[in-house]
From TrEMBL:
Cofactor (UniProt): Mg(2+)
Membrane-topology annotation of the record: Multi-pass membrane protein
Name assigned to this protein: Cellulose synthase catalytic subunit [UDP-forming]
Segments traversing the membrane: 12-29, 36-55, 75-95, 387-409, 421-439, 490-512, 524-546
InterPro entries tied to this protein: Cell_synth_A (IPR003919), Glycosyltr_2/OpgH_subfam (IPR050321), Nucleotide-diphossugar_trans (IPR029044), PilZ_domain (IPR009875)
The entry's keywords: c-di-GMP, Cell inner membrane, Cell membrane, Cellulose biosynthesis, Glycosyltransferase, Membrane, Transferase, Transmembrane, Transmembrane helix
Amino acid sequence: MVAFIITLPVNLQAQLVTGCIVILLIVFLKMFASEGVPRMVALALGVAMVFRYVYWRTTSTLPPMEELANFIPAVLLYSAEMYSVALMALSLFVVSSPQPPRIAPVIAPGKEPTVDIFVPSYNEDAGLLATTLAAASALDYPRDRLTVWLLDDGGTDQKCEQHDLAAAREAQMRRETLTELCRELGVNYLTRPRNEHAKAGNLNHGLAHSSGELIVVFDADHAPARPFLRETIGYFNEDPRLFLVQTPHFFINPDPVERSLDTWRRMPSENEMFYGVIQRGLDRWGGAFFCGSAAVLRREALKETNGFAHSSITEDCETALTLHARGWHSVYVDTPLIAGLQPETFASFIGQRSRWAQGMYQILRFHFPLFRSGLTIAQRICYMSSILFWFFPISRAIFLVSPFFYLFFSLEIFNGSGAEFAAYTAVYLLINLFIQSYLYGKYRWPWFSELYEYIQTVYLLPALLSVMINPKKPTFKVTSKGETIDENRISEIGIPFFVIFVIQIVAVFVTFWRIATEPYSADITIVVGMWNLLNLIISGCALGVVSEKAAKRHSQRIAITRRCSLLIAGVEVPAIIDDVSMGGLRVRTELPPEATARVGMHAVVRVTPPDACINDTLPVLVRNVALDEGVVVLGTQFNAKTAAHYQLIADLIFANADEWKKFQAGRRKNPGVLRGTVMFVVMAGYQTLRGLAYVTQLERLTRRFAPGLFAGAHGR
């Protein structure tokens, strides 16, 4: 029946009407019955229309092979479209019926397995590591069953004995500082002779020096909530062949896109589509994989593979693939139990994504999951879906330049009329949008996937081509975290986006010129011009992304309500903590007349922690003072000096994950396709102007001569 519907010859009017009916049915089913059989019916209807487009596109639109100038770019465009369709098909298989929320099994007292917690580090500062190690040490778990390890790759013998004397001294000082920190926190410091096999080698060195039945991995900037082990360990008692329990990565700071576009508090983060839908879908088929941190692994399973895999620079996914192929199982727990930091700058963001893309290609090249023995058919599809996604820079680049082939060089790369475009291509694009909204609506707003892919394509494309030419060339590079941007600026890698934008503007003028001078082909020119205009809107929004705003704070404030006392100017008064971040906290109190609060003053916050072994006093510096209806509100910066202070900071920020869940839930709102599209276009218009102001330095002049006006525009 599906084949009959796909191949049934109808006129353009019937095709257009059918497409509109299918779109309305998808919308209706999503509004009134978004789960179960109605969900499958809606997706099946959408898929049927997509493949009807594919059939038409394959049989009716390609130019003759004899016309190589037209045929070659036409095949490139056709291949990019078929890649997108294939990726959609794989994604639908993965996420059509995601795994429902799980209830953590309870561990009987006295039956807890021994656990080693690994915190691998390379160049992170001691303050960041202290907070993570303190949070890991404070987990709700028997102390005699838990060992925390700092695996320091920044203080190896190789680094301490290098020929660069200044760098060697720096490594030696790092080793001494972190050794003392670990002693104060009661955790184990471990380094190694040489920096071999990057993070995977560091973890394997930790395996060789520890003996816990289970291994927990936290990145240096990923601090866990107190119940992390209670929410994950029980699954291992239920399934003796379970090798992995993975939890999502929740971040307490915006990525460069969210910060530049000011969307962090009102729109889901980019990673939420993966952790909120895709990982649950992978889990449904037994294919949830290790994501490098916030995970628990079984030592017995890792022994089978001689530890963590290291033939690629994405050791996490490669390790999971290897163990899945050996018959081991995995579980995904969709509860945020760690809070971490994302890259602050656009350049660091691109560096991180380049490593992911290159590593996934290496896995494809060295292991090819589709034919990997030991995997189930569903697992093979899951891994291929996750890996092939990272080829998007190739297709996205083709979609970007294809309008130029026609507008600038008059190449006929798509045989069809304007009416055929409306009946087939426009319907296909709309159904694509509605299917995405159906599957990911609460987790990814319309057009933001296209924006994220575009901003990565410019740099991921050469990175991907490089690893294709030499699969063993890429090396693991640590992603910088905790960076600051002191002033508004254009990213150091942002210029290509302005160049592309200018070319697209020229293409707009060429469109109008061709419509005026070639009226006989105006319908095709209008279609291609609209395509270029869509690319232009996305490119304009990208100008705002690479126009980075000043951001000196490493993390955003998380709202909490917790009683404390404040000792300031020799007077101790009751107070309430309003919010907290990695850098400080905000308290409100009623100060008596004899107590004054000024910027720069030292104060002490006293909080009763749940663990009696943690010191209850925390020194702070007053950074701002305000009045709110007679109540004094103090913005403070942590002035931690001892390990006990970091333990209290970790308790304040990471003890309870409920606030993280509330924060996520507050952002997960589906604006719908129409409203979401309007919002994106309006945002793109503003960000285009902001980007052009940055590049022409108008923004700096405006701030100098009319700061109030500019601040008001940013506020809106």
